[in-house]
Amino acid sequence: PWNYYITSVSTLFPGAGGWSPLESDKHQWLQIDLRERMEVSGIAVQGRHGSSDWVTSFLLMFSDTDSGWKQYQQDDSLWDLPGNSDADGVVHYKFPQSIKTRFLKFIPLEWSPGGGIGMRVEVYGCTYKSDVADFDGRSSLLYRFNQKSMSTVKDVISLKFKSKHSEGVLVHGEGQRGDYITLELHRGTLALHINLDDAKLQSSASHLSVTLGSLLDDQHWHSVLIERFNKQINFTVDKHTQHFRTKGSCDSLEIDYELSFGGIPLPGKPGTFLRKNFHGCIENLYYNGVNIIDLAKRRKPQIYTGNVTFSCSNPRITPVTFLSHASSYLLLPSESLPEGLTVRFQFRTWNRDGLLLHTHVLPKSESLLLYLSSGRLKLTHQKSVLDKMEITTGHGLGDGLWHTVSLSTRGFQVSVRLDNDMPNVLESNSVIGSGDSFFFGGCPATLNDLNCRSPTLAFQGCMRLIFINNQPINFFQVQQGLLGNFSDIQIDVCGIRDRCLPNYCEHGGQCSQSWSTFHCDCSGTGYTGATCHNSIYEPSCEAYRHTGSTSGYFSIDSDGSGPLGPTLVYCNITEDKIWTVMNHHNMAFTRVQGSNPERPYTMQFNYSTSREQLQAVVSAAEHCEQEIMYRCWKSRLLNTQDGSPFSWWIGRTSEKQTYWSGSSPGILQCECGLEENCMDMNYFCNCDADREEWATDAGLLTYKEHLPVSQIVIGDTDRPDSEAFYRVGPLKCYGDRNFWNSASFNKEASYLNFPTFHAELSADISFYFKTTSDSGIFLENLGTKDFIRIELSSPVEVTFSFDVGNGAVQLTVKSPNPLNDKQWHYVKAERNTKEASLQVDQLPIKFKEAPADGHLRLQLTSQLFVGGTISRQKGFLGCIRSLMLNGLTLNLEERAKMTPGVRPGCPGHCSSYSSFCQNGGKCTEKYNGYSCDCTYSAYVGPFCKKEVSALFEADSSVTLTFQEPSLDKWNKSTQSSLIFSETSKSRESISFSFLTARTPAMLFFLNTYHQEYMAVILSRNGSLQIWYRLNKLKEPDVFFTNTVNLANAQVHQVRINREGRDIYIDQNVNTRYTLSSDSELTAINSLTLGKTTGSPSMDREVMFAGMQGFIGCLSSVQFNQIAPLKAALHQQAGALVTVKGHLLESNCGSSIPADLNTFTTTHSLSDHSEKADNEREPLMNAIQSDSAVIGGVIAVVIFITFCIIAVMTRFLHLQRNMHQAVSKDKEHREGLERALRNDVDLQSTVGCNKKEYFI
């Protein structure tokens, strides 16, 4: 190591000296000339000895020349280097990557508040040697091979380059068969084009182009490394690397004769890219270990040198950076010329808007404005407030590239030219001359000229090569205050940055940028947020269930914000177990013939998702299964003499599995072998009996570590008459181990510890908690200086705090209600390169933007502590569930089993989720979650939300029979006790929905052993009537609720509530009706829906309605806690239910049908025996009919003919047995359809609204 310091800078040891400018302001700097390019590895700074002068923060700049400086940056962001806090302390900086430079510049930003600027500096490093070549845009180096063609499977090309031009070929080689490799600078980025395949045999699809880097025409050195092995390529530019594979089938790169560097000397073959030659410098150019520039300098014969010099020319170009969109400007004076003006300059920016130039022209009342508007260049000739002319040219000028603008006036014309386009001209009615001042980038706030400020914001970007009236501007005079004036600009620096490199937009989000920030377009990615970090999909079907979703296809994202994308699955949300179903491409029965152990049949199953996504779904599930069926005719599975199986399957582990349908790993058997019921007890599979008859081995594979089935191999179907059919069903899983994974923290000093949370650029943390404590730490992870923490800071506040090196940041969400209410509450905290956010339940999200040029990386080193921390005494008391960090769920339960003071699991889910169980459903606790018990509800489904509906005919009825209350048998039953406990208080609660077009109709009838009854009917005019006969010796109470015709083929809801003598009706306005008696309906005999038989106690109108029955739909019938329709349709055990006539389960209670056919039949109370037999028949028919297709030999045809005759005989026999039941079923449907259509055209009722009546 060596140190270098100029005369005015003392060494960093006690003693006098140091640099201290006469004035302490932000225009001072210290520049060091190292005399030649050096490799600088670090610096140290100190204040001026024995004084109150030191620098507290500064910028470090470097350059090969004493112009065109570049700011040192680390961690992919520009940031100020902290300095000293006193005069004699030493602050060291060791650079992670050395700087190759000759000049260093220190620019103080802040200094001692009680003194001024003072610095002592020491620089550490070593000598840097390199071989350099200068290319003038017409020159190149040719490296000729020793043989005609060079074929390689491994290549390494490395070099460094710098240029002020955005186009140029750096490396090119090609072969006669179409191979080529080209590295070129294009629009300021590097593009690598490569093809390894024969162009004559392959299409253009084998050609590959990859771009990397940005703003590479900045006249600073950039390093390039290309490593290729076969098809695998690593492409590195500076610190950014892309890994990719070439297309096509070939592995070698075949190049003829030579490889060129710096350009293409002659028009090439079809693979040649017609581009400009490189204009700039290249150093340390190596091809497969050969130093190309060294060979050229030594004039070796394998190198052809064309107009290349071996020292790097450094054209002196002074850029200017405009830093602020509000206050930056550069004022340049010029001589006033009546005959006209010319202005020329170059600019580059990411902004779409900004003022480039404003100047007054002769006559003095007029002005010219040149500015960017929506990425286009606009020129405005302002004659007065109301009189102006405009022209517009170009597009997309906020692309970060250098653009050249020329503005000139001559006579009555004003012209503007952009890059190499044709000039655009404005015509004036007077001669336009040059004014004496030009404002570039903006105007000072003190300038009283609205025209200068009004068109747009000030310019943020870089300008260079400014000429006014053909005279170049001397920026060093501007910098020294000898020429013009300026504000908020940097001279001799172009501070443009590509904020999209690296691309912080995740999951394929498209990055766009302005001068000060970047934006991510997440459209079509399936993710959202400032950096497209958060998945818009739920992680599982279980999670969709808790959003209230019903069965259907859903995209699930198993790892949330992790690298795995979403996948489409079917969620079966119709029962307590929520099934996730994933299909593959071959779900049908597949026939196999002609396979043997030497040439087995193989089928690869392609699922609708990737292997990694399948593994994530299976790993998170509690249980997975997959049906596999093998149907055979003289085709064995496992029965071989040497013990090796004929057939097997391969699962997720890519291992050969020999257990079948319903068996377990390691057991060479089928399900019948385990259950000891195989058709031949000498074998462990039905098919191993090897009989000339159809046999089946079918069952479920349930060892989820082997699922799903990815391949099946069958090897015994090539013997005469041997064949097999197989079917592998979809993968089905239920349960979400992550969603309910929880731990209970019982002591304040207890916590769980996990490995360090690595989330440098993006961190998202989500979990549920419930507690009764006032405060506590949910989690914490510390670094040397950085940290991240989430805590309950008060009973109503959750706080998220972190530090990435820019100072501690804190976000707090305050809840209007206490959070320590022993209810589950949701927390999600996120921190990325753009912003931080905190969400608690459904409260407004708290956001905080990240600084534009601060530290980006969160660097943590300690363990992650959950539920507490070693740095504080008070931890968290309560439960934490479903803790996810960047899409990875921490297994709290497993870690809690090994930690004192922490228990796995957390009871009491119903305290938070009981409201999810609707319509009288009861929440039931489970170890992992909860379920809804719909026993006493008229609804079904996971949340008791699905209506139970039935289609009635005129003769249809459902009767629930009760025995005498005195009889012990029924009185001891649950349902009976519920009935009589309710009715003993003179209360009835009845609710149901109905749809009909026929009157009169019996909807609901309840009678007792004492000849009392209660009935709900539709009268002849369609009005609803409620009849109560509480004493057989007295007249009944009859209530007419309305005169509206309810028999209008619309769905209506009825609710009746009785308390003593009062019946409550709610029809927009609460109304109470009064019975003549408060007698109880005791000793209930039966409850009937639909047609009833007459009895002496029934009044004539009720009896007539009962005899007419009900034609239409009844839905969700509830009497107190009894659901008679549900009991009838779902055949609940213990329910004494009698069904007469034809009853079809339907969805009519939840939608308005347009036609009878829209009633979807899902259940029938007809005889089921014939249906069961019929369901088995199609497979046999399909198999036997498929056998007929193989015919071709007369003997086989005769054999098949006999088989068909036998099958048809059996089929006709079955058909004859089924004919009567099928005819009856058809008559029922047609009769019901005629009954409804005769009264109303149901198609006209689709748009009608559902109506409710509360009684």
TrEMBL record:
Q: Which UniProt keywords apply?
A: Disulfide bond, EGF-like domain, Glycoprotein, Membrane, Repeat, Signal, Transmembrane, Transmembrane helix
Annotated compartments: Membrane
In this protein, which residues make up the domain named F5/8 type C? Answer: 1-126
Show where the EGF-like domain sits: 496-533, 907-945
Q: Which Gene3D superfamilies match?
A: 2.60.120.1000, 2.60.120.200, Galactose-binding domain-like, Laminin
**Boundaries of every Laminin G domain copy:** 132-312, 319-494, 741-906, 957-1148
What pairs make up the disulfide bonds? 879-906
Q: Which GO terms describe its cellular component?
A: membrane
InterPro entries of this UniProt entry? ConA-like_dom_sf (IPR013320), EGF (IPR000742), FA58C (IPR000421), Fibrinogen-like_C (IPR036056), Fibrinogen_a/b/g_C_dom (IPR002181), Galactose-bd-like_sf (IPR008979), Laminin_G (IPR001791), Neurexin-related_CASP (IPR050372)
User: How does the UniProt record describe the way this protein sits in the membrane?
Assistant: Single-pass type I membrane protein
The Fibrinogen C-terminal domain extends over 532-584
- SUPFAM superfamilies attached here? Concanavalin A-like lectins/glucanases, EGF/Laminin, Fibrinogen C-terminal domain-like, Galactose-binding domain-like
Transmembrane segments annotated in the record for this chain: 1188-1208
User: Does the entry feature the keyword Glycoprotein, yes or no?
Assistant: yes
Report the SMART domains cross-referenced here. Answer: EGF, FA58C, LamG
Q: Give the domain of life.
A: Eukaryota
Q: What is its main location?
A: membrane
> Member of which family?
Belongs to the neurexin family.
- Free-text function comment from the UniProt entry: May play a role in the correct development and proper functioning of the peripheral and central nervous system and be involved in cell adhesion and intercellular communication.
This chain's protein is named Contactin-associated protein-like 5
Question: What is the originating organism of this protein?
Answer: Erpetoichthys calabaricus
Where is the organism placed in the taxonomic lineage, from the top?
Eukaryota, Metazoa, Chordata, Craniata, Vertebrata
